[in-house]
Amino acid sequence: MWLRGLEKVFLGMVVALGLGWAQNRIEVWTHFQGAELEWLKQQASAYQKAKGVQVLISEMPLGDMHNKILLSAPQGHAGDLFLTVPHDWIGEFAQAGVLEPLDRYVDSAYRADVEPVALEAFSFRGRLFGFPAYAESVALIYNKKFVKGAPKSWAEFLALAQRYTTKETFGFLYNVNEGYFNFGFYRAYGVENVFAKDASGSYDPRRILLGGAVGERVLQLLKDLRFRYRLIPEGTNYEVADGAFKSGSLAMILNGPWALGDYKKAGIDFGIAPLPSPPGAVRPWGPFLGVHGIGVNAFSPRKALALDFARFLVSQDNLVAFNQAGGRTPVSKSAVKRLEKDPVVAGFAKIFPLGVPMPNIPEMGKVWAPWNNAIQLAIQRPDSDVKGIVNNLMVELQKALGR
């Protein structure tokens, strides 16, 4: 049992809260749609048959869910469970006290089955604030019409990219303008994350790691992709790169699982792999991970029921079924093992251990605009002052973070 003493906690809470049959229900707030919503409804029905607990499902857009949880949970007007919570909300929600800490409910067997990077994503100041369910990141996605197998080295990658950069085709394109898509290069050159961590393992927003020699090296590499290797022309953004891949004129792209449905519809036979590390890298390329999981309302009067249903949802069988419904890659190692013949799951499962979660503290929201602006300045001209741009970025970030 990976929820230690859950049955005892459940019985104790039932007595303490005076829950009778009329209250033997929980409400789930979800942003799921389509096949994933149908999966949730099926799980709710199965759970009700097995446990006699009615599960009410309230649907809402993900963006609406954020503010509703913050405002409604303390007033007693929110759902008992939230499906799903992006991990970059965790710091804000933990500070607001709206998510139940789960450490006393999980044991070593549960932790051992979840990818460490996913547990890190849902931890804040040393405490776990959700049940991680699935993750996503960017990867090198290649069209097998051009690239028969994933490149194993930067030299091989670069040769392929240049070979297929012609008047009719592109070798390699991606949204070069944004930090999210470029973080893997920072990590390859030695950066642990955007922020350093303090002695307790928490992110310290006073210690920003995007500057110095590593920051200069990354921006120079991005300049080279445009001006030295002539791979990524001016005007390339997400829509341009994504459209080129869908049209079959692009050999390789950095993109995520959210795009794969359209690529399949376009009839593209694609593969998924990590991007090879660039020259001078000190570790493998490793992207940002976005992890989604199940949050438990800290103010719920039906917390034990909510915990039990959450446990039911993140069981191996149900995570496998969730993948089959919507294609998400689970962070449960045992579920991934059962899905190992799925090339998408297998591809991203190799990438997740290389990456790190985006910082889950509110300060991260103030980093994106200055960071993206610095990248765009660096790749604007072949003679751009990379060192000056990086120095200015650090000044802007210090201002944005109030330092």
Can you offer a commentary on this structure?
The chain has helices spanning 6-17, 34-51, 62-72, 90-96, 108-113, 116-121, 154-163, 179-188, 212-228, 238-247, 260-265, 303-313, 316-326, 333-338, 343-351, 368-378, 386-400, and strands at residues 25-30, 54-59, 81-86, 123-124, 127-128, 131-136, 139-143, 170-173, 195-197, 203-208, 250-255, 270-273, 288-296, 329-330, 356-357. It folds into 2 domains: 6-136 and 289-357, 3-Layer(aba) Sandwich (D-Maltodextrin-Binding Protein, domain 2), CATH 3.40.190.10; 139-286 and 360-400, Periplasmic binding protein-like II (D-Maltodextrin-Binding Protein, domain 2, 3-Layer(aba) Sandwich). Strands 1, 2, 3, 6, 13, 14 and 15 form a 7-stranded mixed beta sheet that branches. Strands 8-11-7-12 form a 4-stranded mixed beta sheet. With 403 residues, it is α/β, with parallel strands linked by helices. Helix 2 packs antiparallel against helix 13 (316-326), helix 9 crosses helix 17 (386-400) and helix 16 packs antiparallel against helix 17.
